[in-house]
Every structure is written in C-alpha cells, then in structure tokens.
Amino acid sequence: MKKRTALLFTAGAVLTAGSLSPLAHAAPTPAPKAPKDFVALHTVDPSIIQDMRYATKVNFIGRRIDGYQQPLCILTKPTAEALHRAQEKLLPQGYSLKVYDCYRPQRAVDNFARWAKDLDDNRMKEEFYPRVAKDRLFADGYIAEKSGHSRGSTVDLTIVKVNSPAATGGSVRPAGPCYAPQGARRPDDSVDMGTGFDCFDTLAHTDDPRIVGAQRANRQFLKGTLAAEGFVNLPEEWWHFTYKPETYPDTYFDFPVAYRSVSGH
Hints:
Elements: H1 2-17, E1 38-40, H2 41-44, E2 49-50, E3 74-76, H3 77-90, E4 95-101, H4 106-117, H5 125-128, E5 154-161, H6 213-227, E6 231-233, E7 240-243
Parallel strand pairs: 2-4
Antiparallel strand pairs: 1-3, 4-5, 5-7, 6-7
C-alpha cells in the first residue's frame, strides 16, 4: 500500500510541474511529402545537369529561398520522363540540358512576394532588374502570388555544350547586368541566350526582336527541342517551360525541396 501511494504522489508531483501536459511528449509534426508520382529528376536521368539557384544565395534575392532544403530537382514523373526524352536527343548532338529550378514550394513563392513588397531590399537589383523599379515587379508580371512551378510540371532550364567547362552561378559577388554580353554577366556554361536566367527584363522574352543571330537560334533550339516532347514555353521567359497536360493543373503544393520529400518513390 505504501508503494502504491508513493507512485501516485510522484505522478501527482510531476503533473503539478506541468511537464506531462498532453503536448509535452507529442512527436514533431512531420514535413509534408510529395505525392507518389513526384520524383527526383536524377533518378530518371542523372545526366541532366542541376544548377539549383534557389538553394543557394545566387538568385535575384541574394539568399537561400524558403523551402529549398537541398539542391534537388523534383518534378512529376511524366515531366521528368519528357526531359529524359529531350536529353536523349541532345546528347548525340553534343549538348545537355541544365535545370535552374523545378518544383517550387508555395512557401518559396510566398518568400518571393514578401521580398517584392520590401522596397528597401535591392541588393541584387543591378544584376537582375536594373531597368525595372521594384514596386513594378507585381504589375509587370515578374512576381506573382502563385506559380505554376508549385504544381510540379514546370521547369526553368537551358542548354550547355557537353564539353564546356562546368560552371554554375558561382558566388553571390556582384555581377554585370543580366542582359549584358555573355562575357560581362554572371558566369554560366549555358549557350548564349542573350540574357542570364531570371533576368527581369523584356530582353528575356523568348521572341524579343532585338535578340538575333546565334542568341535567337539558341533560344529556338531549346524551345523546339522541348516542344517536341510536350513542353509549352512561357513567352516572357526563354527558360520557362511547362509539360502538358499537367498532372496537377489546379494544385499548389508546399512540401520542401528535399530528398526525404520523394524518398521511397
């Protein structure tokens, strides 16, 4: 009887301290996972180069973007398989695809929107939007509250020569304007598309008439290669393509860009 009383007293003392409240030992809420038909691109085609800018500081904000926990391209499986088909056609010609961004969680889109409303943060202006006032980014369509990337069938990418020296965005050091001649803007092994990736400027419009010669031919080469596999280009961005039909045309996901989001798929 004394033993039982001691146990009850001990339990009562603990409860009084509050350390055994109903939530005290609750397991942390697990991060959401991707649906089963999302995959890591490298599991479908490891030869496609990945230069995932939003997982680094090398982007138009100048810091890692919310939700990008690892530099990983995640897409719906049909989109990844379509990129694989395009890559199979490019490699014999001496070229490879390189992706800059793939699936983008809603929290990252929200991060972009908050940044766009902070008119005092212009650390990357001279490179990415030197000719656009920051208070015009929403009105001019460069930033939005929703992104097709969050549906999993949209990808930002370019073409590189397979024998070119590997190059990614490099450090966050200042770079020339994104529309400057190729040798004067941020180093990248992309064929010359006339502007860099994420250039907030009308020169980035795929068919801008000021883009001529090899730059225009390179854009059309990328567009034609992907169109043959079911991708539709966004006219305002030479690098932006959506695979049709979309697996999730009306759903905006928010699972993080991380290996665990697609582990086991």
